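Lab notebook page, bench 4
Experiment: in silico fold of construct C2
Operator: M.H.
Input chain length: 173 residues
Purpose: comparison with the prior construct
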Amino acid sequence: MVKKLKAMADKKSASGARLFDSALASSVKDSAQQIWLAGMGAFAKAQAEGRQVFDALVKEGSALQKKTQSVAEETFGDVSSKMTSMAEDVTAKAGKQWDKLESIFEERTAKAMKKLGVPSSKDVEALMARIDALSAQVAGRAKSAAKTTAKRTGAKTAAKKTTAKRAARKSAA
């Protein structure tokens, strides 16, 4: 294009600057016309092949989405299992710490209660066992005393009966 302009300029250089300006304007006009036509051709081609390109892009996007989902699901599964194991570890550690805290609390409470003279549950259980044993002894002695009393009362009653029988015999004789 530039060669054409130079050639035209050389031929018409004799006619002056005015002639050069009209040749340049004509050349720019032709170039603009060609650019416009090239753009229209590209647009027509894009319209004709656009549907095929669009379908190809949809297929590629779908394949990429499937790959991405599978990778995401694997990653989510790995992360989920790691989080579960971490949660279990934390729960176990917390449980151990809670047990330690509970035992410390129980020990300190027991010391305080002992200083105040409050009997512990073991002391109360020992006293209850002792009371039960003493109650059993008392009940046993009460039964043997009742038997002894019954024997004595029975012996006295028998003696009175015998004496009454003797007296009745004497009076009958």
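Observations: The chain has a mean pLDDT of 79. The two ends are 184 Å apart (CA to CA).
Next step: discuss at group meeting.
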